[in-house]
Amino acid sequence: MTTESRTSGGARNQIVTTIRQWVQRDVIPLSMKYERDGIYPRELVEQMKGMGLFGLNVPQEYGGLGLDYTTFAMVFEEIAKGWMAVCGVIGSHHIMTHIVVHGGTQEQRQRWMPRMSRGELRGGLALTEPNAGSDVQAIQTRAVRQGDGYVINGTKMFVTNGLHGDAVALLAVTDPAAQPRYRGFSCLIAEKGPGFTVGRELDKLGYRGVDTCELIFTDYRCPADSLVGEKEGEGFRHVLSALEGGRINIAARSVGIATAALEAAIRYAQERQTFGKPIAQHQAIQLMLADMATKVQAARLLTYEAARRKDSGERVDLEAGMAKLFASEVCQQVALDAMRVFGGYGYMKDLPIERYYRDAPLMIIGEGTNEIQRLVIARQLLQRYQI
User: Fold this and answer.
1) Is 367 a catalytic site residue?
2) Residue 74's domain spans which residues?
């Protein structure tokens, strides 16, 4: 199923303005305390339900907003400018909705999408394992067909929404003899129940306030119609397709964090004085701000271009990979440069600068490490320009 949609310019501006106002009014005032103490933002989740943010990329016929990916990226950019952790509440959830919308049967879309759009069924992606990260084909979690369902055993790591969510899109091995191995992978929507256990809640450098967990499946049973598409061996394809959108998401978050750091640095440079004048009048600071702004704008344009191509129905693993790679590296550098502009104050927890710096590395790792992104980009280039 395809959901290429176009959001009109007026509607897009209205949506982005609404999100920006919400972030300023409700998100930022909570961000520093909640992030510092690792408090899950329950009140913000309820507000997000009311705004329809759990159904951003879900077609309207299933109760979602049906937004295009360009608007989708802008929404995540705005939220990340305020507090990137809030993006995690809906980011991984939208990977799961993408898998069902594009890979599920009509019956599955009708069963899951309305609840997921309303935020009544919230979740994420259970992909990584203790010994299977970048090497996805090394996953060991097994889903064995027994009667009218599957019995699942295995452990998943780094699952966003694992504690406070209700379900996950789970990639598991259904045919261990398949060659190549990924053809034996299937994706199931696993809702919490007996045998589905949250192990450790992981303590992180940044991205605090949203839960990241270990999930343990011990003889967990789910019905056969939880298999996405009701056809085994399609799970790897479902997940890769969803991760294209996930990388646009990460690129947009990176742009949001970098923009927040840049804007804070510009303001501070005009307020802070040394040697009798604002530091913004020192050439060294001016050169730094110019480079930061140029990099952020380049990252934004790469992200929007990947989103535009995704909206047109094209395969965008090259473009999304480039956007994610460049934007996340820019995010890390701009966050560090902003800290340099602030000097010692940037290192203090009284200001959000150090949070931007701690959140940035996740963008380099999330949805595929940048080392893997470079390999994906190179592979696509060699295919497109084959001689």
Assistant:
1) yes
2) 9-122
